[in-house]
Amino acid sequence: MDPKQFRNALGSFATGVTIITTREAQGGYIGVTANSFNSLSLDPPLVLWSIGKKAFSFSAFTESKHFAVHVLAADQQALSDRFARPSTEKFDGVEFEHGLGDVPLFSGCAAVFECTTEQYVDGGDHVIMIGRVERFSVDTTALPLMFFRGRYAIPEAGGIFSPPVTV
Q: Under CATH, domain 3-153 is a member of which superfamily?
């Protein structure tokens, strides 16, 4: 199987864009852009995301007891780009508050989930991080930042989400 073609096929699944943050044992702040976020369970409240085993921040996330998932709003593309690149200066000039475990929390997001690390599951070249949601916030007026076929996408207000669908 051609890995590039496989990755391109996976890109046909539109996703939201998140930034996952944590605090490393030495006190530094760590953050990565990820679109592998997903809900897992309502009872107990669990979410999951995955990180590559070769990622610079892999050990910080696997050693931390807390992390936060920031579901980015449509106007946060620059923040997404900043945290998508390897750098030790991602947090320079970025304002944030402190959440559970002193984890960085950004404002202006569509939603934020503060999690306690529950479990790690091997997933090939990635590890699936499962977190128990301890607290969350949501901005019901925010449009989401999305990712589709290798590019950002932003839904139009009143567009793809109208009319409301009851499930």
A: Electron Transport, Fmn-binding Protein; Chain A (2.30.110.10)
